[in-house]
């Protein structure tokens, strides 16, 4: 197919509409310039016009067709395929590479953001851990003070058990005790009173011949003075766990005072006579059972006394330095701390410090301005102490109920005996 009658073949130009229009425009402009008549041809038109015009037109068409073909070849091959197209392809590759680099940079920014957030989270957790696990001096003080509570409580329970056994052995007049012979028991107690607890000024100075002049004022009447002997001291030098054994060993002052008071309070008079009921009459057997009933009632009452002695008996001695420091922070002179707490603070003394005295120190409340974790730890520690105190209170209430029940039983026995007596009279 010819283009505008000039014999130009579109070749590969059919798929390039834009470039084809450009070539066609350039061709028309070229043709318009080539068809302008020249003066040289006008001179021969008069003679041989028909013979020279047609060959000239053929040469012109041939020249135009070749020129257009060459121009088309140059436009497509040289200009487009060899220069423009490779340049545009390189430009596309470069733009694609730059775009990929930009996406990579965006991805790098995203990775950096994630990395920074992770580092920030780790640093935050590290700071929180550093803050939460920073030790608290107040918490360490409480933790150190409670170390000996368990062992001291166990030693107190053993002391109560020994006191209870000693009372039962005395009332049962067991062998190897002074109460085995009631007369000797009374003599030994009188001698102890004269040599240790007697005060010449008592009884309107009637003890002048009885009292030993060497008695010390600090021991006067301690066998009957509950306040000085048991109530006021936080720790009693009473320790039946290790015992006082060996040559020359003897009981401590507090042990002597406590046992003397227990003897005066419970079973002051030992039952005399033969308690062997084998072959005895029925009244003697009933008397024996009544006596054991009295001992059972005394043991209930004495249980409270023994428990109090156990709670105030000497502890294990663990953490004594830290417990002394609590009183020193309250302003107690160091020389008086040992006098108040003793060498080995008792369970009672430790609970007194940990559940009462520490709250009297203003620094305790100042130290509450601490890390939230430490404040929670202190709350848990104080809650544990509160549970121990509530347990002690519960046990005390149980002992009180036992004593009230015993008192009620004693009153009912009087009424029962009266009713039984009237019934016997009627019969």
Give a topology summary.
Blueprint: H1 17-34, H2 39-42, H3 45-132, H4 137-145, H5 149-171, H6 182-197, H7 202-205, H8 226-231, H9 253-265, H10 282-311, H11 320-329, H12 334-341, H13 347-355, H14 362-366, H15 372-426
Helix pairs in contact: 1-3, 4-15, 5-10, 10-15
The amount of helix comes to: 55-70%
Radius of gyration: 60 Å
Whole-number total of structural domains: 2
**Beta content:** under 5%
The stretches of 5 or more residues where confidence is low (pLDDT under 50) are 1-16, 33-47
The helix tally amounts to 15
The number of E-state strands comes to 0
Largest sheet: none
Structural class comes to mainly alpha
Characterise this structure.
The longest helix is centred in the N-terminal third of the chain and has 88 residues, at 45-132. This protein has helices at 17-34, 39-42, 45-132, 137-145, 149-171, 182-197, 202-205, 226-231, 253-265, 282-311, 320-329, 334-341, 347-355, 362-366, 372-426. The protein has 427 residues and is mostly helical. The protein is rod-shaped, with a radius of gyration of 60 Å. Helix 1 (17-34) runs antiparallel to helix 3 (45-132), helix 4 packs parallel to helix 15 (372-426) and helix 5 runs antiparallel to helix 10. The N and C termini lie far apart (159 Å). It has two domains: 11-132; 137-426, no CATH class.
